[in-house]
Write a structure and sequence with these properties.
alpha+beta, globular, five-stranded antiparallel beta sheet, four-stranded antiparallel beta sheet, 568 residues, single chain
């Protein structure tokens, strides 16, 4: 989801003369964006950048990260407003069903899920459902928060914003129309070209990250919890009370969680399936038994934070319940006040070793098994991503600078006991794959160039059935049901008919790998068949670019009222 740099610079300049307004980093369509929310999003963007490009961003790249962070936040605010408007929600079952039935291309092509070069469905499904052998919690979260709600939102956007009555009428007429037309096909499979060994090797060197083997590492870490001050305890209680009050007034727990999680690091909503009552502690059983189904408990203190339980259903001997865990909230001053102690702990570990340092600090020494990128080894995504971003420049036996975990209110000292990154498949293993990809890309590009040159040379669209340059197909009195070699031409036909009605020039369209030009010769009066809205919507989508939703959302960002009080 991209947006012009010019506009992003405009919204930055809009607030360049102002400083932070209280606890707000900015305002988008009347919604205040907390400083903590912006900082966390900016840090995550920066960590992702380091992980992808293997170096810290320079001044220009930092500006780009700043702009993209605000774009992400603006899109999030707009989407949340639309989800609320149309009462759109998603659940874990929908996530699992979607990932299981429709495997994203990035995973189907990933070496992570290939055994002897072939995609392993069992390995993929095990990771989707059980995070083994690869952790997919982040993917499920993206599907839960965005992907599935967006799929549910799309029909509303089409019906209420994009497909107005005029466009419905034009589209219905095009669907009901018949025409005589020619189809000029520039088929890339008929083109001949060669690719040298040096070109293949050069592509391999420039795109080596595509053929990277999964990075693996092992580490040890010490967690140093921060001692909360009285005002931290009071603030944590106040936030927990406000959440409890909203639930008491009938607020939906799922909606409240989705709203609060963006700026409360460590806020978690966990559900337990039916649990036998003899496996539940007496204290918790006493809390749950007093609750009617679907009701929430009082605030329960837990590790300087709080838990709110919700009883879902009670059977004769089992209970299904879930709980919202509200983390303790610690002020930046308290966090920074413990930084020197964290640095001292790291120096102690360098001097004595992690095991003895942990004993001196009276803190458990945690050791991981062999990890892959994305594994859920620590209960704070920010810590995991921060460590992963530093791996390319960190050697086995190195210590990482102390990292603060908002989710666990701790400074974390990390020591790399093993680190294997940046290993790639050998050129000989991927040579054929590269060759096939380059042949396909270049042939398609060459076919489109030939089509473009033909249009420039033939302003009157005169065709030649015997031309060696292209294949010419002729159709009589047919409409969107027309086929080319068994493939539907409905999208090609409708786009051409709509362009003809609007008085636009002919243009090149893609049909599989081929580039085609549809030339209307004679258009017959359309029938007056009634077209169902679902069918209109389907045909409309087929006439739109693949990224139509991103284009719509970027348009909403341009229309948004945005004020930014922070600076890059």
């Amino acid at each position: 989801m991209k947006k012009s740099i010019l506009y992003l610079l405009f919204i930055v300049l809009l607030a360049s003369c102002g400083g932070p307004r209280g606890d707000s980093a900015g305002i988008i369509n009347g919604k205040k964006i907390a400083n903590s929310e912006f900082i966390r999003a900016y840090q995550t963007r920066t960590i992702d950048y380091r992980s992808i490009y293997k170096h810290a961003p320079d001044a220009e790249e930092k500006l780009q990260i700043f702009e993209n962070t605000w774009l992400d936040i603006a899109q999030h605010v707009i989407l949340m407003d639309y989800f609320k408007k149309y009462q759109i929600h998603s659940n874990e079952k929908e996530v699992l069903d979607s990932l299981s039935a429709n495997i994203p291309l990035v995973f189907r092509e990933s070496n992570l899920f290939k055994v002897n070069g072939v995609f392993d469905m069992d390995m993929y499904l095990s990771s989707v459902h059980n995070d083994s052998p690869f952790n997919m919690a982040d993917t499920r979260k993206q599907y839960l928060d965005y992907y599935i709600p967006i799929q549910k939102l799309k029909p509303y956007i089409i019906d209420n914003e994009l497909l107005d009555s005029k466009k419905r009428k034009e589209l219905a007429e095009a669907i009901n129309s018949k025409a005589d037309f020619e189809l000029v096909v520039f088929d890339p499979t008929q083109l001949k070209l060669s690719i040298s060994e040096s070109e293949l090797r050069n592509y391999y060197q420039k795109n080596m990250e595509r053929y990277a083997l999964p990075a693996v590492y092992e580490l040890e870490y010490i967690k140093l919890p921060i001692q909360m001050q009285e005002y931290d305890l009071q603030y944590s209680r106040a936030v927990a009370d406000s959440i409890y009050q909203e639930l008491s007034y009938g607020r939906n727990l799922d909606a409240l969680y989705q709203e609060k999680r963006t700026h409360l690091a460590g806020l978690t909503l966990s559900e337990a399936e039916f649990v036998p009552e003899n496996m539940i502690s007496e204290e918790l059983l006493g809390i749950l038994d007093l609750l009617p189904d679907n009701k929430t408990s009082r605030l329960i203190p837990y590790e300087n934070g709080y838990i709110i339980y919700q009883k879902m259903q009670r059977t004769k001997s089992m209970i299904r319940y879930r709980h919202l865990q509200i983390p303790p909230l610690i002020s930046p001053a308290t966090v920074e006040g413990h930084y020197e102690a964290a640095l001292g702990a790291m120096e102690l570990a360098k001097s004595l070793g992690m095991r003895k340092a942990a004993q001196e600090l009276d803190s458990p020494l945690e050791k991981t098994a062999t990890l892959s990128l994305g594994d859920n080894w620590y209960p704070d995504e920010l810590i995991r991503k921060s460590v992963e971003s530093k791996l390319p420049g960190t050697k086995k036996g190195d210590y990482l600078s102390p990292i603060y975990s908002p989710a666990t209110c701790s400074w974390v000292i990390v020591y790399l006991t093993d680190n294997k990154v940046n290993k790639a498949q050998a050129f000989s293993q991927v040579k054929q794959e590269i060759e096939e990809q380059l042949f396909s890309e270049r042939k398609q590009e060459l076919a489109r160039q030939k089509a473009q040159n033909w249009l420039l040379r033939n302003p009157d669209y005169k065709t030649d059935k015997d031309s060696p340059e292209y294949e010419l197909m002729q159709y009589q009195n047919i409409g969107s049901e027309a086929l080319y070699k068994g493939e539907k031409l409905d999208r090609i036909y409708l786009n051409a008919m709509l362009a003809k009605k609007a008085g636009k020039s002919l243009f090149i369209q893609s049909l599989g790998e081929a580039s085609v030009i549809l030339i209307p010769k004679k258009i017959y009066p359309p029938a007056k068949n009634k077209i169902a809205i679902t069918e209109l919507r389907e045909y409309f989508l087929r006439s739109q670019p693949v990224n139509w939703f991103e284009l719509w959302l970027n348009g909403k960002v341009r229309e948004a009222k945005i004020e930014i009080y922070t600076k890059p």
